[in-house]
Amino acid sequence: MARILLVEDEPQMQRGLRDNLEFEGHEVSIEGRGNNGLQTLLRETFDLAILDVMLPEMSGFDIVRKARERGVRIPILMLTAKGEEIDKVLGLELGADDYVTKPFGLHELMARINALLRRSNPGRLSAEPVMLLGDITVNFSSYSGSKNGKEFEMTPKEFEILKYLWQHKNETVSRDSLLTNVWGYDESVSTRTVDNFVLKLRQKIEDDPAHPRIIITIHGTGYKLIA
Q1: In this structure, which long-range contacts are made by residues 62-66, counting pairs with CB atoms below 8 Å and at least 24 apart in sequence?
Q2: pTM (2 decimals)?
Q3: Which of 14, 77, 169, 186 is surrounded by the most beta carbons within 10 Å?
């Protein structure tokens, strides 16, 4: 069972999602306004948050941004009636982990929720939960990292990308492989999004992000983590 926060202002959508999530055995808390949703997310402990983009008082985008700034590391799934790719990219780059466009199929939504919960379960981490690489230490179980003894922050998705590259260190990992194994699907996220996340990772762990020595680009294919 997982504890899930649903921030959605449409009563019918609230009831439908709550009923189906509770049928799956999850505990669901509901907020209908953006400000209330953010405060509940910051105040209480959840395993997953589901946020509508268009909310009274504060958008789902703002909730994601402020929650990540305040250290919230749980998976976040966004719901929206918009279908433009720019909205999807914005939500993901702000720190969301997945994105579903209304109207959506219930089976698809539940599959994505379950995939996020599985990937965020520390019990499913590899047998090598800590990355030690030069002056960099990353603990994938506690979602913490440091460079030269100074802590740095990463979003859950950035941790998952780095963990997957670490699990396949010194191997070429294709962009498609990252899409499949980190996002769990490849129809809504482009390889450009993968590149953007890798760029942000380099800014946090590389001495010179413009000339990376840890996560190098394999042109035409993907990336390789050098260890």
Answers
A1: 62/34, 62/38, 63/7, 63/34, 63/37, 63/38, 64/91, 64/94, 64/95, 64/96, 65/94, 65/95, 66/38
A2: 0.57
A3: 77
